[in-house]
Specification:
alpha+beta; 4 strands; Alpha-Beta Plaits; 6 helices
Length: about 210
């Protein structure tokens, strides 16, 4: 019983740590769905701890599987001496618990991989731009603080592309910037900066390219 309890505790801990590892990337998506862009960067402070949370998830789930497999061996041994119905009941319970742990493990993997597929949750806001005069096109690099993953990039691009006159928006959380091409007759740097800041991430500097 204690082995079963410790295994379940490890499984639940794995779920929590897996969610915590990706919550900084899940928040922008939730903010988009809820229509409250400003909360997108709420959990960005967790990002430095992501490798440790991933390690914790792998460790506790590995321990949980070890406990399950160990209990299976014990049940197999008991079947040789105990009555058959009791042995079958033990195996049935083990199969059910292993199924539960398998579901937990799959869920944890999906959560840990979230930053790599989060872009699918963002609608395409790119518009077809008809250029009348190329001299009206301006390119500016915006330095941005607070971004931690690809989900943050998508969120910034999504908000910027809502503006009229945006030709191209390329955001990088690794470089901490967004390079925006825009038609200066339709929008300006102040409007773009306002759109970026509305996500919860902050423009710290800008430079015309």
């Amino acid at each position: 019983m204690n082995m079963e309890k410790s295994s379940n505790t490890a499984a639940y801990t794995g779920i929590i740590s897996a969610i915590a590892a990706s919550i900084c990337c899940m928040t922008p998506v939730l903010a988009l769905i809820a229509g409250t862009s400003g909360i997108a960067s709420t959990f960005s402070w967790i990002e430095p701890f992501r490798p440790y949370l991933i390690g914790l998830t792998i460790l506790v789930l590995g321990f949980a599987w070890y406990q399950k497999l160990k209990s299976q061996k014990e049940i197999d041994c008991e079947c040789e001496t105990d009555d058959l119905p009791a042995g079958k009941a033990g195996k049935t319970k083990l199969i059910q618990s292993k199924t539960f742990l398998g579901i937990v493990t799959a869920f944890a993997i999906v959560m840990l991989a979230f930053p790599y597929y989060s872009g699918i949750f963002y609608p395409n806001t790119e518009k077809q731009i008809i250029l009348v005069d190329k001299s009206d096109i301006k390119t500016t690099e915006f330095k941005i603080s607070g971004m931690t993953c690809a989900s943050c990039e998508e969120h910034v691009n999504h908000e910027v592309n809502k503006l009229n006159g945006i030709v191209n928006s390329k955001t990088s959380y690794e470089k901490g910037n967004a390079i925006i091409e825009f038609d200066k007759t339709k929008t300006n740097e102040m409007e773009i900066e306002k759109a970026i800041n509305s996500t919860g991430y902050k423009v710290t500097d800008k430079e015309e390219n």
